[in-house]
Amino acid sequence: MSLTFGERVARLRQAHGLSRKELASRIHVSFETIRQIETGKIQYPRLHHVCALASVFKISLDAFCAEGEDILVVLSGET
Predict the structure, then answer these.
(1) Buried (b) or exposed (e) across 30-64, using 16+ Cβ within 10 A?
(2) pTM of the predicted model as reported, rounded to 2 decimal places
(3) Which pLDDT does position 4 carry in this prediction?
(4) Cβ contacts of residue 56 below 8 Å, gap of 6+?
(5) 7, 70 in Cβ contact below 8 A?
(6) What is d(CA 16, CA 69) in angstroms, rounded to the nearest whole number?
(7) Which of 28, 1, 33 is nearest to 9 (CA)?
(8) What does the alpha-carbon distance between residue 41 and residue 66 come to, in Å, rounded to a whole number?
(9) In this predicted structure, what is the pLDDT of residue 46?
């Protein structure tokens, strides 16, 4: 199942035990921005936000943005 970018952010945030507020603080955006990304209202976030998210989650941009893969499966190495 292919996940949207927002769904990937939500799954990674939850897997890292972060609230939306905590994640927003770490990448210097508002809680509302994170909510809008996760719910798909912002479908194409700014590149510096994507880079900051990848940094917080400690993953490469390639892995973060890979389509057609469940991000948690990609990170766990399962196929």
Answers:
(1) eeebbbbbbeeebeebeeebbebbbebbebeeeeb
(2) 0.81
(3) 86
(4) 16, 18, 23, 26, 27
(5) no
(6) 19
(7) 33
(8) 20
(9) 92
CA atoms within 13 A on the CB side of 58: 3
CA atoms lying within 13 Å on the CB side of residue 24 = 13
Q: What is the dihedral of CA 3, 12, 10, 8, to 10 degrees?
A: -20
Q: Binning pLDDT at 50, 70 and 90, where does residue 2 land?
A: confident
Alpha-carbon distance of 76 to 4, in angstroms, equals: 19
Residues recorded for the chain: 79
Q: What share of the chain is helix, strand, coil (3-state, %, to 5)?
A: 65, 0, 35
pLDDT, greater one: 53 or 69: 53
Q: Which two tokens stand for residue 65?
A: 């943005």
Q: Which residue has the tokens 């199942």?
A: 1
